Amino acid sequence: MTELPPIVREVKLLGYDSGELKAEHFAVVQAAATAPGPGQVLVRNRWFRVSISTRLMAEAGAEAVQGIPFPPLKPGDTLADGAIGQVLQAGPGVDLAVGSLVMHPLGWRDHALVNADQCTLIDTPQIDPAAWLGHGWTAYAALVKGVQVRPGDTVLVTSGAGAIGCMAGQIARLLGASRVIGTTSSQAKARWMQTELGYDAVVTRDAGPVREQLAQVAPQGIDVIVDMVGGEQLAAALEVARHGARCVLLGAVSAELNPHSATLKAPVELDTFQLILRGVTLRGFSADEEAPELFDAWIRQLANWQGEGGLHIAHTLVKGLDQAPLALQEACAGRLKGLVLVELE
Ligand SMILES: NC(=O)c1ccc[n+]([C@@H]2O[C@H](COP(=O)([O-])OP(=O)(O)OC[C@H]3O[C@@H](n4cnc5c(N)ncnc54)[C@H](OP(=O)(O)O)[C@@H]3O)[C@@H](O)[C@H]2O)c1
Question: Does residue 285 line the site of ligand 1, with CB under 6 A?
Answer without folding.
Answer: yes
